[in-house]
Amino acid sequence: MTDCLGLLLLPTPPQQITFLDVRVALHPPLSSAVLRLSKARPRQQESAALLEIAIPLTRVIQNSYNHQELFAETGRLLFNVYQLLETIYQKENIPSEGPGAVDTRILFVHDGSEELDDGEGLPLVITSFGALARTSRPWTHLFAVESEPGETLLRRFMTLRGGDISRREHDPLLESIQRLKGGLQIYMPSLHSNGLGPIYDGSRQDSPTWKVTVVIGGGGRRVDFTDKYLLTMGLLSIAGVRDQGLADPGRIEPRALHVAILDEGDHQLEMETKAFAFIQSLTGFLRYEGQSPTVSGVGVDVTFQPLQDSMANTSDETNARVVVVSKTRRKAWEEILGGRDRGKNTTIVELNPIEPAEWEDD
Q1: Domains: count for the chain
Q2: Cα separation, 110 vs 55, whole angstroms
Q3: Are residues 107 and 242 in the same domain?
Q4: Which of 145, 155, 211, 355 could share a disulfide with 182, CB 3.0–4.6 Å?
Q5: In sequence order, what E strands does the chain have?
Q6: Is 357 a domain residue?
Q7: Helix (H, G, I), strand (E, B) or coil at 136
Q8: pLDDT of 361
């Protein structure tokens, strides 16, 4: 674990989640947080600083009728934020490894209101704001957006932690708060949920997914933004686990996330370690048992496989199977698989890779 760990609390993302809207709203706080952590890390230390970015998904959840809509809208948001980060790294010359490096990870939270507090039906990768606030993660930097929504979010976060932001007592994290300039969001009432609209209900999925394979790697020893995007989408595609079946774990079909890595040898082992650390940070519930990372108490197994074994046992007709892969890596994956049967219930989710965007400086 790095000794330079930051948390950025972002207010609700823009109503329209095109890249332009995301850039205008989020570029100022994202670039400021990344740059500050990069400079805070002693240059003589090789390990990267870590920045966790909490993004509220409540509005997206409230406007999603089913898992497919939630997957699509969250995927658009996730892609655009990671693309913005990739662009910031390029423009500001932020290294991905070594001195000055910052490892950024996007965490999705819901607001913990009465309708969503128990997270029923939501994928494991979406956690409640209260669970995030009460975690024991040793953040050394806490970033908040300098705006009314940002201040409200910060106060609520500290209240849920049991601290008192006005007296600066009880919680060392209070001393590390830094307020960052926010971007611009245009509010359009016609796009606003009236509060009576559909609440995401994972039980109404057309085809619940229990087994997901994510293909990552091919870029050396680091988990890059494309890998992070694919792993998050893989977790997001798994059927919700916080359901009534938890009362009797034996009644739940085990959920499984298989991570297939393009790299071999030492690179593969290093990618396994880094990918697991990333998955663990998104869920907060994982533990590692021998060679098989598992999720405690919620029926999700995370395993790492050689790529050639990533399509084993796909003939099982009792469960839907999803493979998440980027367009740039699908060819390599197909070549390794050859003509192997993938199973008729297998769905290929092909996603664009994360690449820097081009825009004129303001």
Answers
A1: 2
A2: 8
A3: no
A4: 145
A5: 5-9, 49-56, 102-110, 126-128, 141-146, 177-181, 209-216, 255-261, 286-289, 292-295, 300-306, 320-326, 346-351
A6: no
A7: coil
A8: 62
For residue 317, the 8-state DSSP code is S
Alpha-carbon distance of 27 to 46, in angstroms, equals 27
Quick check: is 356 in a domain? no
- Domain of 324: which CATH number? 3.40.50
For residue 64 the two structure tokens come to 């999603």
Indicate the residue type of 128.
S
pLDDT digits (tens, 9 = 90+) for 48-80: 899 999 999 988 888 877 777 888 899 999 999
Distances (CA, A) of 10 to 235, 266, 320: 22, 37, 35
Q: How far apart are CA 136 and CA 124, in angstroms?
A: 19
Question: Could you tell me if 197 and 63 are in contact, meaning their C-beta atoms sit under 8 angstroms apart?
Answer: yes
Q: Check whether residue 218 and residue 181 sit in a common domain.
A: no
**Residue 106: what pLDDT?**
97
Q: Which residues of the chain have pLDDT under 50?
A: 114-120, 167-168, 189-208, 241-252, 285-299, 313-320
Model pLDDT, residue 345: 66
